[in-house]
């Protein structure tokens, strides 16, 4: 799991490494979501929640704890 490698390579404590991984994931997630929206994939999806979970491997737990970063 890359989380462990990040911690070991940079000598980070667990909370700092988790924060970095969450930021990297957030950037990827937002780019993919933007692409899905602009190409109409999100609109065509039968369920937005299912799309987020299956296509983006979206973890609702992380969204609730980190939503303040964007709003």
From TrEMBL:
Transmembrane segments: none annotated. One of its GO terms (biological process) is protein import into chloroplast stroma. GO terms for cellular component: TOC-TIC supercomplex I. This is Uncharacterized protein.
């Amino acid at each position: 799991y890359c989380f462990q490698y990040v911690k070991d390579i940079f000598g980070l404590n667990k909370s700092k490494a988790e924060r970095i991984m969450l930021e990297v994931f957030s950037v990827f997630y937002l780019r993919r979501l933007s692409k899905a929206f602009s190409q109409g994939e999100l609109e065509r999806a039968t369920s937005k929640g299912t799309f987020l979970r299956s296509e983006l491997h979206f973890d609702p737990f992380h969204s609730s704890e980190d939503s303040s970063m964007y709003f």
